[in-house]
Amino acid sequence: MPDLFAAGDEPSPSVFSIAAHRGFADALVAGLVPRYADADLGLARLTLLLPSRRTVRTVTEAFVRYAGEQGMGAETADGARAPTGMLLPRMAVVGDLDLDEALGPLLDPLGAADIPPACDPTRRWLRLAHYLRHVEGDAAGKGPALLRRAFELGSTMDRLLVEGIAPIDLLSDEVVAIVGDLSKHWEDNTRSFLKVQQFWIAELAGRGEIDAPERRNRLFAHAAESWAANPPEFPIVAAGVTSASPALARLLRVVSELRDGAVILPDLDLGLDAEVWEELGSAGKPAEPEDPPFGRHDAVTHPQYHLKLLLNRMGLSRTDVRPWHRSGMAASPPERKAAISNLFLPPRASAAWVSLPADKRRLSDVRLMESVHPGEEAQAIALLIRVALETPERRVALVTPDRGLAARVVSHLQRWGITADDTAGQPLPQTAAGRLFLLLAEVLAEQGAPVPLIALLTHPFAGSGEGRARWLESARRLDLALRGPRPAAGLAPLAALAKENRLGTWWEKVEACLAPLFELYAAEPLEKALGVLTEAAEALCGENLWTGADGRALSAFIEELRAGASAAGTLVDARDIHAVLRDAMDRTSVRPPWGGHPRVSIYGLLEARMSRADLVICGGLTEGVWPASPSQDSLLPPAVLRALGVPGADFRIGLAAHDLAAALGAPEVVLSWAQRDEGGPVIPSRFVLRVKAMLGDQVGRHLEREIPRLARLIDDAPRAAPHPRPQPMPSAEQRRVAVSVTGLDRLRGDPYQFYASAVLKLRSLDSLDAEPSAAWRGEIAHLIMQKWHEAGEPKEGLHAIAQKVLDDESAHPLMRALWWPRLSAALETFEGLVLAGKEEGREVLGVEKWGRMDYRDVTILGRTDRLDRKADGTIAVVDYKTGQPPSGTRVEEGFALQLGVTGLIVEAGGFEGVAGEVTGFEYWSMAKAKDGSIGYMNEPVREGRKKSGLVREEFLDRTREYLDDALSRWILGNEPFTARLNPDLDLYSDYDQLMRLDEWITGLGKPARKEDTP
Fold it and tell me: Which pLDDT belongs to residue 1012?
């Protein structure tokens, strides 16, 4: 290799570019070792400036691979090389702002003590919220919304500071003129931004601090001045740094002019035509002084744009950059370079695709893989990785900004025992420790709502230790007790429920942990609230909460937020703490420790830079994901940012394109996307569409079809035979069960449902915090009528009792508002019917009364809503319905026998204190009557104009016939309990899944279903 670093009499910039197809890290090492390796000290005299801590690891691994490939070591007697250690260069991190990385001691030395310290970012965030509230008043919002705006405001301030834009620049005539021409929305936002910024600057000055980006700029300037005035004795090389901030660009210029110094850029396209390079736009170097730094037509989405911006800010042209002639171990074919360059041509230049020769568009070993949905895509990617690992020493990397896709791939790989780490990390709320802390805050915000409470109590960390099994048993019993609509807010109703279910001792421990949370009020110091939450978490989980990587990250997050909140004096509503914490924790990533599969890497876009593998899979290539949808700055309008020289929102699309161009330089590449996401169809990434357009008629040869097919086959089981219609045949002893008055209807209509309910004793469970069901509404209506009767049926007292019952049962306000008009009207109708009957000599004998009789050695039992003695001395059976009652036809056919069976029990003396002949069979419904009124009474008796129902005199006899038939066939006989014996009958659906209804019902004609209506 020629001496690329040779210096002349005058310091000339030493700037190089490693082409994408050469593999940056390996090619970098291959060029540095021959130049800087020393027989005694190796590379220890060299200092490498790298963009991030992740790239330090990447370059270190490249040095190890190089040493192994070259057989570096001392020569033995037989001429072989004995492996020895290698002294690596000093690697200093410039610090990636997107990864929130700090500068190392090289660039932040003790000699820079005259530069003021940086302010705490958390304190700044909270103080900006205070000033925003002060400037805008109530219009600024409150709680989480205010803090989100404050964070966006701080991000905009950082953006300006990174670009070296002073606050005074925002008050220039040009900016003021632009703001005056904008809509009032932008004008108000800009004025608010300026006012808040001035308040913050004044506070910083009072404390003798500066913002972190400003301090970074000063440190870069300090290093540049120091190295320019007193060049370091040993060489400095900046590699892979692409940030185009003005301060860093000036530092790189100084490094490029140092003796034996160099700047090595990744993937700068030196073969791009000059016309195309000019078409990229001004890129911070306008043709005329009065022109804006960024032209309106600049190709900011091009992958070379940010590199052109960096060169312009370094004061260099592309002709000053020389190619790096070394290649890495994972280099791709040289012709790939021309194809990558042509792939990302700007709009006008891309017209040349029509006449491109085949060798200029060749993307050999690049495959396109389309999947139907994200689940299939993750399965296919996992299979690609699995196949690649069959080849010894083959390295494979998945690069994707879609963290959901990455998590799915990690899970799929576990089926083969492959542990893969997502180096982009997990958001803190998705970790076990972060989730527990958020659950505590949610329990506080929801005042003990069942869903977060049970999730908290069954969390893997809760109650950990020797008593974990008993803890879970108690938590599950409470879970069952909480099923259904939500109880009243607070701990008292929960304590009563726990005591009722014999969980009092265990609940006392839980309440001791949670009680301090419920003492927080509307305006509490955030510092105090965090302290209470932390103490509750430790009381609930012990020290296990803090032991893992996620626990340590949570601990650091809490301490930083507490310190910032204490200094800022932030107050927060206890109900808003959950949302505030969720927003803040989402910005914290927990990255896995070392220990994943050595040949499998999963990267985000930032982590993938400078990394290389033999197979690179680019996943999630859809619009809105890669590239991400550009988000406009919500505070400063684009015209203002453009005038100030701040890259627009589309600038990040160019960075995403550069990341893809770098990935395309791998020896083998798979571009993967799905046709839809969780919400619906999506559009493939513009980069995929470019690849297809450039390949033209060659695209068919690049499609990967086999891997998606195999991925689908993994979960493709042999076709199962149709499930037979269930017809259980329990023994005679198992059949001898009690039959309820409502169970007889189920036995005749669908024997399998009776079997599951009465023989197997299976019950359906409501969900936690369930919406009020028809059954729940029926229970409430029954309870209201019961309490009214027990109170002596006071006139105009029914509504008051109804309100009290709804209060006691913690009826949801929305449900009450929607249901109350119908309930109130129906209760008025019922009250009128009862009082009218009383005037006619009708007497209520019992409400919600249990009865039973032994019939043919079978117990028949049930509860009646009401029994009345009519004026003629006979008895009427009354059943309340919140919906439409069974029709006369259904009663006549023997599928609604509740009233008749209850009458049989009455006449058999099965209800204590009630005796007599039964002649009344009444349904009292809260549904709408034919005349439009709410509530009515109906008897399924065929008389007068009614053409369906049972004749009153035959009602009990026909009921007895149906009862005898059912008992003879199923309870005392040996007939199978056939599922859906009457498929056309609309029945309840509690046991449909148990009977696997959907697997066999199609041949019978699928019946309509209805909700359970009491």
Answer: 39
Q: What are 121-137's pLDDT values in tens digits?
A: 999 999 999 999 999 88
Q: Which distant-in-sequence residues (6+ apart) come within 8 Å of 255 by Cβ? A: 49, 227, 236, 237, 238, 261, 262, 263
Kindly give the interhelix angle for 549-568 and 432-445, rounded to the nearest 10 degrees.
50
Whole-angstrom CA distances from 342 to 275, 372, 653 are 13, 29, 18
Strand 262-266 to strand 236-239: parallel, antiparallel, or no bridges (unpaired)? parallel
* Residue for token pair 């309930």: 823
**What's the CA gap between 252 and 227, in Å, rounded?**
11
- Between helix 706-714 and helix 374-388 the angle, nearest 10°, is 100
Q: Which of 341, 346, 269 is nearest to 308 (CA)?
A: 269
Residue type, 334: P
| Backbone CA torsion sign across 446, 448, 449, 455 | positive
651 contacts 293 by C-beta, under 8 angstroms: no
pLDDT for the residue numbered 98: 63
Long-range own/partner contacts, residues 597-601 (CB < 8 A, 24 or more apart):
597/389, 597/418, 597/419, 597/420, 599/389, 599/393, 599/394, 599/395, 599/396, 600/385, 600/389, 600/395, 600/396, 600/397, 600/413, 600/418, 600/420, 601/395, 601/396, 601/397, 601/398, 601/420, 601/421, 601/423
* Digit-coded pLDDT (tens) for 662-674: 999 889 999 999 9
Determine the angle formed by the axes of helices 121-136 and 184-207, rounding to 10 degrees. 130
- pLDDT, tens digit, 9 for 90 and up, residues 275-290: 889 988 888 888 777 7
pLDDT band for position 1004 (cuts 50, 70, 90): low
Secondary structure of 935-1001 in HEC code, one letter for each residue = EEEECCECCCCCCCCECHHHHHHHHHHHHHHHHHHHHCCCCCCCCCCCCCCCECCCCCCCCCHHHCH
Q: How far apart are CA 590 and CA 573, in angstroms?
A: 28
Whether 574 and 521 have beta carbons less than 8 Å apart is answered as yes
CA distance 131 to 192: 10
Q: pLDDT confidence of 1011, banded at 50, 70, 90?
A: very low
Nearest-angstrom CA–CA distance, 463 and 465: 6
- What is the 3 state secondary structure string of 181-246? CCCHHHHHHHHHHHHHHHHHHHHHHHHCCECHHHHHHHHHHHHHHHHHHCCCCCCEEEECCCCCCH
**DSSP symbol at 114:** T
Quote the strand ranges of 882-917, DSSP E: none
Tokens of 276: 């195309």
Q: Is the peptide bond before 627 cis (omega within 30 degrees of 0)?
A: yes
How many Å apart are CA 664 and CA 399, to the nearest integer? 11
Position of tokens 């209520």? 844
Taking 70 as the threshold, does the pLDDT of residue 647 lie above it? yes
Q: Token pair 């089981």 is at which residue? A: 717
**Phi/psi of residue 727, nearest 5 degrees:** -140, 65
> Whole-model pTM?
0.85
- The C-alpha atoms of residue 678 and residue 624 are separated, in whole angstroms, by 13
CA angle (709, 713, 716) in 5-degree steps: 140
Residues 524 and 518 sit within 8 Å (Cβ to Cβ): no
Contact of 983 with 1007, CB cutoff 8 Å: yes
In the predicted structure, residue 81 carries a pLDDT above the cut 60: no
Residue with tokens 């300090």: 222
What whole-number distance in Å separates Cα of residue 827 and Cα of residue 426?
55
Which is nearest to 540 in space by CA: 572, 511, 566, 505? 511
Q: Render pLDDT for 814-843 as a digit per residue (tens, 0 to 9).
A: 777 788 888 888 888 888 888 888 888 889
How far is it, in rounded angstroms, from Cα 602 to Cα 63? 21
Burial class (CB in 10 A: 0-12, 13-18, 19+), 404: middle
Query: Residue 162: enclosing H or E segment and its boundaries?
Result: helix 143-162
